[in-house]
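Lab manual, section 2.4: Encoding a predicted structure.

Procedure: take the sequence of the chain (62 residues), apply the prediction step described in section 2.3, and record the output as structure tokens. A sample record is shown.
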Amino acid sequence: MRKYLFNGAIIGSIVGAWGVLQTTRKGPRDWRLILTWISWGLTLAVAVGTVKKEADDRSLSS
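Recorded output:
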């Protein structure tokens, strides 16, 4: 679990979520908001996948 919490990609995605939340609260509610959430979700998925792949690569090389 620690490998996910302290990874730069995950931290960046969480920081990015703050911007998405602010856009949701203050911005217009149209199709761009949905795309913003989808984009953030994909960013989080890529970050989690990257951490998992790095962990798997480390365990194979050990």
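Check your result against the sample. The longest helix spans residues 31-61.
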